[in-house]
Amino acid sequence: MKINKKNVGRKIKKIRVIDLDMNQKRFAKKLGITQPMVSKYENGEIIPPAEILLKVAKLGKTTIERILEGR
Q1: What is the Cα–Cα distance from 44 to 34, expressed in whole angstroms?
Q2: Whole-angstrom Cα distance, residue 34 to residue 38?
Q3: Cα gap 17→12, rounded to integer Å
Q4: Which three-class secondary structure string do you get for 5-69?
Q5: CB neighbours (10 Å) of residue 12?
Q6: Which of 1, 12, 37, 60 suits 27 as a labelling partner, its CA being 20 to 30 A distant?
Q7: What is the percentage of the chain residues whose pLDDT exceeds 90?
Q8: Whole-angstrom distance, CA of residue 28 vs CA of residue 2
Q9: pTM for the model
Q10: pLDDT tens, position by position, 50-64
């Protein structure tokens, strides 16, 4: 499966903004990372490592698979 970084970023941002109503700084703190790293993930520059994806999925009450899938 080819992973689209932009789509993953959009899904992470949706979880942060729509589902959790958090700013990047607060979201970063929940994930144990920096705000600039959240920005890189959301902009589709890089895909988060598995441990961060798992934390995002748990916060968003979803699965890693849903975050990574192509749609």
Answers
A1: 16
A2: 7
A3: 9
A4: HHHHHHHHHHHHHHHCCCCHHHHHHHHCCCHHHHHHHHCCCCCCCHHHHHHHHHHCCCCHHHHHC
A5: 25
A6: 1
A7: 92
A8: 26
A9: 0.93
A10: 999 999 999 999 999
Among 53, 22, 50, 25, smallest CA distance to 38 is for 25
- Tokens 């970023």 sit on residue: 9
- Nearest to 5, CA basis, from 55, 47, 35: 47
For residue 66 the two structure tokens come to: 């849903």
CA dihedral 38, 30, 27, 51 (to 10 degrees): 40
Triad 27, 28, 34: Cα angle to 5°:
160
